[in-house]
Amino acid sequence: MMKRRTLTLALLMGFVLFIAACDGKKREKNRDKDDIEATTDDDDEDQDRYMAQLRKGAKEANATCPVSLGIMGEMVSMTMEDDVLVMRYDINEDLISVATMADDRQTMRDNAKVMLSNPTGAMRTLMELVIKAGAKMKVSFHGKESDAVASITLSADELEELLNNDVTPEEKLETAIASTKLQLPIHVAQGMDVVDLKQEGNNVIYVYVVDETMYSVDLFEQNKAQMKEAVMAELSAQGTVEKQFVQIVVNAGANLVYRYKGDNSGAFTDVTISNRELKNML
Question: N or C: at which end does the chain have fewer Cβ atoms within 10 angstroms?
Fold first, then answer.
């Protein structure tokens, strides 16, 4: 089954990594805990102090890299370049086309801004620190198999605007779907490709086209219960970062549907995981 990775998941990994470093995993706990509290609570501190904290946090987070993102690739560094916090990811291009991302930078930028709107937790903490330091944030994706690079940079003013920007769960889901669709089709197994991701009513549907010389859609239908168990087991086994797409679906009140469609007959069977079932996995 295809692993769902979007821009927001990579960003989340960077934020969690940074906050983990700042929370004391590689720092002197008491002193630096006070530093982080001051960062989030004291708006009157000098900008240079915030920049120093940002540089220190980036350096310590970078020391934990590379960090695996599973089959997506890995986060290889978090560094400061002048006043820019740069998070670099090396991407497995069998799953994600960095060239496609680079060719549609505006969509990539718009998607990132929607996904970062009204953030919580680690995302919000890091964005607030970047803003108070008067810095910028850059996310850079590098193709492992090519020289393709796709990157976006957000200014402190843009990040501040996003902090309290009201984006509905439905809008976030729409953006996540649109971002993922840019990567399709994806070959996931012999005789099986993911060709579409769409929303129909309350259902978010992954469409798999299967080679009917290898697979029987009728057998899929007959074994739907077992297929559902397998899909749910894989979803449950995913890590926190990997489950963010599921969280987006849940927040929008939607279900996940895996549609297996014959390449010649057009016959299909749906494996549906309800919103309640998804919520119970999180």
Answer: C
CA distance linking residue 46 with residue 58, whole number of Å: 19
Angle CA(18)–CA(74)–CA(155) in degrees, nearest 5?
50
**Whether this model's pTM surpasses 0.85:** no
Q: Give the number of C-alpha atoms closer than 13 A to the C-alpha of residue 21, restricted to the C-beta side.
A: 20
**Closest to 145 in 3D by CA, of 92, 198, 66:** 92
Choose among 195, 199, 193, 194: nearest CA to 177: 199
Residues 6+ apart with CB under 8 A from 223: none
Residues comprising the chain, all counted: 282
DSSP assignment, residue 4? P
CA distances from 170 to 199, 229, 251, 274 (A): 11, 27, 8, 17
Q: Which DSSP symbol is given to 264? A: T
Dist CA 155 CA 165 (whole Å): 15
State pLDDT tens for residues 246-258.
Answer: 888 999 999 999 9
